Amino acid sequence: MAIQATFIADPVLISNPSRISIRGWEQCIGSLVLKTRPRHLRLSNGGRVRARASLNADSKAVGIPRQWYNVVADLSVKPPPPLHPKTFEPVKPEDLSPLFPDELIRQEASTDKFIDIPEEVLDIYSLWRPTPLIRAKRLEKLLNTPARIYYKYEGGSPAGSHKPNTAVPQVFYNAQQGIKNVVTETGAGQWGSSLAFACSLFDLDCEVWQVRASYDQKPYRRLMMETWGAKVHPSPSSITETGRRILQMDPSSSGSLGIAISEAVEVAAKNADTKYCLGSVLNHVLLHQTVIGEECIKQMEAIGETPDVIIGCTGGGSNFAGLSFPFIREKLNGKINPVIKAVEPAACPSLTKGVYAYDYGDTAGMTPLMKMHTLGHDFIPDPIHAGGLRYHGMAPLISHVYELGFMEAMAIPQIECFRGAIQFARSEGLIPAPEPTHAIAATIREALHCKETGEAKVILMAMCGHGHFDLKSYEKYLQGKMVDLSFDEEKIRTSLDKVPQVTRN
């Protein structure tokens, strides 16, 4: 007989048992009630114990959200439409059908406020969701700050990041439509490994083009994908016309996400039994990630906290949107008023240095034109950039929300990011992926500012994954070989010169 333990205690602390005081354990034990029906509680490492936490008799245990939230429904000014790459007219559903299954096309253009999550997807989500909200008390102590720092940890998923939140539904909808093969690109490998994981569950073939710089630097990410059955190619590759053209111009090309997208899209467009999956940027991807913020709102309510500052890293923008969009809804409804900050790498600063314009999502110009903050679809980050977040553009929906003034943006150089990651690892124990090191660095800045002003702000941070397969970057930092990359104005100017000139009312 399985035993369920119900006890009165702080659900955030229960998600991280090492933080429970002696008195807290006494309260837990004193309130222990045995039942025969098992429930699951997540530990901070993604494991399970047969227990359920409640704050008081009136509160409900935080469960997995049953709907995704669509921020478009609450925006008085709707985002500009994507445009056909040849006609520059708004894309129609049939324009996208070679790439995506029907349900994802519907979600991409939806203005519904909530979209139900299929039961099959919820069942798989339950392998790692709900994810823990953890108070970083040891980091607070290290920084000697009056701020209270919380992080929403997505690293307990099978792939070690937030990416399966959208990989699973994308593969589900493809399988439902009878698709047998999906293709994609990946940079650091978190998205590629997440899609490979999802395909293994639904018995779909998966083919991945991984940016050459990451393919060489992160062999274990490639091995994860192959373990789940995916076929992985370094990009640019000799398999596609796009790849061959790039290699002819530069045989030693380190690649970019834009190039890898072009290769994957080319394969999908030429094969009727194959669809394309994207791990960030598009509306339906950001939609799927809102399970993060929806859970987090309930978790913070349960402990009586309201965030004053919300911080997340941004490359394409999916994890940032996943945490922040539900909170933006609450902000628009007048319930809370947090400052929301997107943090990007100084080496690839699309929000802070790019232009807000229609641009291609890929290097070859095969994807629809999207209005976004962009560095130009030809932009290729320096291969020594260790911090992930390598995409040339920001998600159109995040770009639109930024233009409306609902969030702020900042760029931080990589040495500061990894210095913050080391402080986090040596106080909180978790080794962050390179991407959230940017959010950690910004959080540390904010906490130290609170130390100067004496403000006891509540800081909420998106901790989107662990760095167990990204230790090469840490090695570079620890050996003193990491350098901050200067922002090359001429390189950006050359890339921006190739952004299409599109004028629309």
UniProtKB/TrEMBL annotation:
The protein's required cofactors: pyridoxal 5'-phosphate
EC category name: lyase
Organism superkingdom: Eukaryota
Tryptophan synthase beta chain-like PALP domain residues: 127-465
InterPro entries in the cross-refs: Trp_synth_b-like, Trp_synth_beta, Trp_synth_beta/beta-like, TrpB-like_PALP, TrpB-like_PALP_sf
EC number: 4.2.1.20
Organismal lineage: Eukaryota, Viridiplantae, Streptophyta, Embryophyta, Tracheophyta
Record protein name field: tryptophan synthase
Keyword entries, A-Z: Amino-acid biosynthesis, Aromatic amino acid biosynthesis, Lyase, Pyridoxal phosphate, Tryptophan biosynthesis
Keyword hit for Acetylation: no
Protein function: The beta subunit is responsible for the synthesis of L-tryptophan from indole and L-serine.
GO MF terms, alphabetically ordered: L-serine hydro-lyase (adding indole, L-tryptophan-forming) activity; pyridoxal phosphate binding; tryptophan synthase activity
Family: Belongs to the TrpB family.
Subunit structure comment from the entry: Tetramer of two alpha and two beta chains.
Keyword Amino-acid biosynthesis: yes
Catalytic activity: (1S,2R)-1-C-(indol-3-yl)glycerol 3-phosphate + L-serine = D-glyceraldehyde 3-phosphate + L-tryptophan + H2O
Species the sequence originates in: Populus euphratica
Biological or metabolic pathway of the protein: Amino-acid biosynthesis; L-tryptophan biosynthesis; L-tryptophan from chorismate: step 5/5
